[in-house]
Design goal:
Elements: H1 30-45, E1 51-56, E2 59-64, H2 69-87, H3 96-104, H4 106-120, H5 123-127, H6 132-153, H7 156-196, H8 199-215, H9 232-245, H10 249-261, H11 272-292, H12 298-315, E3 328-334, H13 341-352, E4 356-364, H14 366-375, E5 380-384, H15 391-404, E6 409-413, H16 422-426, E7 430-432, H17 435-445
Parallel strand pairs: 3-4, 3-5, 5-6, 6-7
Antiparallel strand pairs: 1-2
Helix pairs in contact: 1-9, 3-6, 3-8, 4-6, 4-7, 6-7, 6-8, 7-8, 9-10, 9-11, 10-12, 11-12, 11-13, 12-13, 13-17, 14-15
Length: about 450
Amino acid sequence: MPSAALASTLPKRDQDGFWLDGLAGEGHGTTALTELRKQQLVLLGRGRRGTADVVVDGKKCRVNLELPREQAQRRQTRASSTISWYAIGAMSEPSPFCAEVLKAGARGYAAVAVEKLFAQFPELDRRFAPNASSKWRDNLLARIQYLAASVDTGHHVGFVQHVAWEKIALMARGGDEACRDLECSLRVLRETLAAELPVNASAAALQCLDLTLERFHAMPTDVSMELDTSTPAGTLGAKYLLAVLEGDRRAACELILDAAKGQSAITGTLTVTEICERVLGPVQIELGRMWRLNQISIAEEHFATETTQTAISMLYLHLAQRPRHGKVALCACVESNAHDVGVRMVAAALEDSGWRAICLGQNVPIDDLARAAADFQVDLIALSGSLITHVPLIGAAIARLREAAPNAKIMVGGLAFAGSSLDQQLGADASASSIADVVAVANRLVGLQTP
């Protein structure tokens, strides 16, 4: 159940036991944490700032409603260090041969690694019972697949980011012990691949693992809240998130529609693009952060995502009343990518700026994607990738699309492309890093002026 801290520091108590630096998990049950989180969002939605005392389970707790200057500076420092721990030396030469060998032998390598892991750390068999061997084999198999995608593109930062993401999730669920398990498994995986991979296929994989292990202890173990409640759009996002966490889809959608209709007392009128960029997008990032920190369940995340998809669909009734310019965009997630909220927002923003956007959603096979591009005679194709494992598939899709729709421009985006030049490597025409950026880049690619 949800709990979250607006402050980026560890929680502290005063002499009365109040939480001074936000909400935190130790010592509170999940019901109390849920109530604390809801009360915090209610106060933020009412425009309250500073700190406030609330009563939960008969105990008075103090919650932060803004970041003091010192905490904001610490957050900024942490954000800078979060970039630096993986960015240096992260790019390398692509090694498709190594990737193919890894994929072909992934199950065998995972099985050998599990044997070595249990031989060196026999307590894991007991701690992860029942079916400890099967659990670890699946875990290492998935990690080898991420490793294969990273060396295939030379984008070793993709694997490092994957491990960093996993470390944060494990810290929230199992603490230091779980993080030590992760590090031990990485070292055993490296030992296994060094012994089992052919000499001419091992260098890239070992380099990627060495980089990851080198940065492991510098990786963060938590992540700061991204929802900026000091702005009207951020406050609207907080109220929307509260409605979602309370399971009220109608109330959540009404908040969004009021902003689109100019009836919101919080924001006034927002365009569809502004709502996606400044409200729904940050809320989805916050939901991802909360899941990673074990503050919401998979069920809650799924309900929240479904609600946001509903809100996006309803926004189509409130698109800007401007004439269409005749350009057609195809928006899709490639095969195996089930994260399609971002691409739905891209399609809505393009529609809002005069495009006819055809959104195919999640998990679209390459041949069907190519057929749709040809059938609809599109001018632009926007492809989304959330994970490094999606990148090789996007590369294959781009090659196929060049044959099926040779005149179409191709744009890529999503978390898998953040801070990289992978778009150029894959043969895309451009990449976009935000919803607003999508519209500007799309217009530039086809020779349109951005309003």
